[in-house]
Amino acid sequence: MTLKANSKITDINGIGDILSKKFEKLDIKTVKQLLFHIPFRYQDSSHLLSIQEFIEKGEGTFIAKIIDVKNAYTRFRKIITTVKVTDEEKTLSITFFRQPYLSKILIKGETYIFDGKVTKKNGRKNIYNPKYELFKGEKEKQRNLGKLIGIYPETKGLTSNIIRKNIYKIKEDISKIVKDPLKQGDLETLPNAILKVHFPKDPDDIVHGRQRLAFDEMLSVAFKIEKNMSERENFKSEKIETNNKLVQDFIKSLPYKLTEDQEDAQEIILKEINKTIPMNRLINGDVGSGKTVVSAIAILNTIKQGYSAILLAPTTVLAKQHYDTFSTLYKGFKIPIELCISKEKKITKTKNKLIIGTHAILFKKDIPDNVALVVTDEQQRFGVEQREFLLTKSNTTPHHLTMTATPIPRTLTEAFFGNVSVSEIKEKPKGRIDIKSFYTPYRKRDDCFKWIAERIKKSRYKEQAFIIYPLIDESDITNTKSVLKSYEELKEKYFNDIPIAYLHGRLKEKNEILNDFKEKKYNILVSTSVIEVGIDIPDATIMVIENAERFGLAQLHQLRGRVGRSSKESYCYVIPGNSVERKSEGEERLIYFAKHDSGFDVAQYDLERRGPGEVYGTIQSGIPNFKVASIHDLGTLKKARKVAKEILKKDNNVDKILDNIFR
Predict the structure, then answer these.
(1) Which residues in 396-459 belong to E strands, given as ranges?
(2) Cα separation of 419 and 637, whole Å?
(3) Dihedrals φ, ψ of 501, to 5°?
């Protein structure tokens, strides 16, 4: 049978229903999917040692001839198989446990390759259960040992050896099965790349093969970026001219001076909304860097020039906070502001206004038809609904400004927000004091809470503290602290004479509790990460995060950003669970966090160690799950974008290419 890319995997000789179901667990149903199942690492056993070298080194791969094979029973009636081998210079005994069939499989007089370790027991050196394979005379003919082999993502009952064995069956047909839709002279052809990553002769084969596969993965991203950019040029937006006097009057009304980053960002935003091509810009700012004020300048200018603007927030709490913030910022500028949330949904017929609300706004029919600017806070939480609004609500496309609450490293913004212009705001407003962060070992937890109690009392109950936990209730599965149980402990043991409350996502009265906390009815709020984004309590000066190893570093940084929002000295304590070991990866992450106050540094560190899907949420952010490519490889991305642009100029239908490239 002639195999094709879409042939069922059962068309490969030897793969029946039972084995095919195991392959399905790895999402492998076709021949193409099998060939595109790529090793995630490689094992090199090509350097063959003599028996003497193997013993001296204590591990490795050696070649020897079998001179005897015997089965014997231990006193506990367990079968052991002893294999005596030689390489003409030295003889060695190897022991296998519970594999009596080896006496029939291993053939006396034949030469085998063995791979294993030397184990010392009772003063003697022993070799237990090494891997083995019959030596076929040449390294190239070996399947698993004596050569460079790939180690694949596996599942129960489906080892790398089995996967490799079945790919080997179609090795000679790869050039017929895999079609290359691209011509990239400086890269391997796709069939050659597939052949080299599965059956490399040397490390260079792996490098060259993976370079082509990484390019293909980046190309699929590049097509999306370039397509979105070309589509945007076909849409028309309102040209919003800049009222320079208005802008300067607003900036002068602020109780602080804008930072250089804020100045640069607001200037370029005003330039871009003064064009008929829709602006699509991301404000990538650190916690407390003043992103909101920059957006306020653009919104003010838009409304005063005769248009309306919308500000989207991910939660009702944050929408209300934005309403309060903008009401204060625009005091004296006569800007109509309407809040559109679940309890206050009505939108009036007032012209030229700011509407603030959650994404529920996008489904309302009474939105003004003169919306010229949409600002989205915490952009990664919005998706299809927002895009539909931008394209269908009016004859013109509103300018679009997004703000991220989580700093995104430059490598990620270029790779996955490539169709968006980016303004970075790293400077903090003058007057803000850096938050003092501490890694606090579990054994010092008691001292930490006692210090907090003293601090609040010395401040005459003016200062406030957040204490954060990963869970609402106790869990039998994990040894992790929770809000409800810890609240009782904290209240009785440390803060019995200090007003304390708790908060979590299941409570209906979240807004009331936060308002009471802001008005200092409580000095301590025990909470889950529900307070992570946008909560602004100026007198909150202490943040404690228990079981901090359970949070990503970007999330820890967001939580840290809930304090230090005034000129008062502020503190953040990250406390690990009592199961986190010294010098473990979990402890190292928390120590790094405590030593770095830049959200960009923290995000980059987390990104490199956990990957974008773990840090930002693969589904939420639309970040592809690369098999080969690295998000840090901007060189390959730039090359892919250039190729994508050239292809799209000639043919806008790229489905055939996408169907055939590696991804």
Answers:
(1) 399-404, 421-425, 436-439
(2) 13
(3) -140, 170
Q: What share of the chain is helix, strand, coil (3-state, %, to 5)?
A: 40, 20, 40
Burial grade of 409 (CB within 10 A; 0-12, 13-18, 19 or more): buried
Task: List residues bridging with 66 in a β-sheet.
Answer: 85
Q: Please state, in angstroms and rounded to a whole number, the distance separating the CA atoms of residues 631 and 654.
A: 23
Tell me 471's DSSP state. B
Alpha-carbon gap, residue 211 to 216, rounded angstroms: 9
Are 303 and 335 in contact, with CB atoms under 8 Å apart?
A: yes
Measured from the Cβ of residue 296, the count of other Cβ atoms closer than 10 Å reads 24
CB atoms closer than 10 angstroms to residue 621: 19
Q: Report how far residue 10's alpha carbon sits from residue 426's, in angstroms, rounded to the nearest whole number.
A: 55
The enclosing H or E element of 388 equals helix 384-392
The burial of 307, by beta-carbon neighbours within 10 Å (0-12 exposed, 13-18 middle, 19 or more buried), is given as buried
Strands 124-127 and 354-357: unpaired
- How far apart (Å, rounded) are the C-alpha atoms in residues 146 and 204? 17
Contact indicator for 88, 51 with CB cutoff of 8 Å? no
Determine the Cα–Cα distance for residues 10 and 631; give it in Å rounded to an integer: 35
Query: Which of 536, 541, 540 lies closest to 436 in space, CA to CA?
Result: 541
| CA dist., res. 390 & res. 589, Å (int) | 40
Residue-wise pLDDT tens digits, 45-74: 888 999 999 999 999 999 999 999 999 988
d(CA 102, CA 35): 32
Residue corresponding to tokens 């079998």: 66
Q: What is the largest CA-CA distance in the chain?
A: 97
- pLDDT tens by residue, 189-214: 999 999 999 999 999 999 999 999 99
| Window from 311-315, 580-584, 621-625, 639-643 with minimum mean pLDDT | 621-625
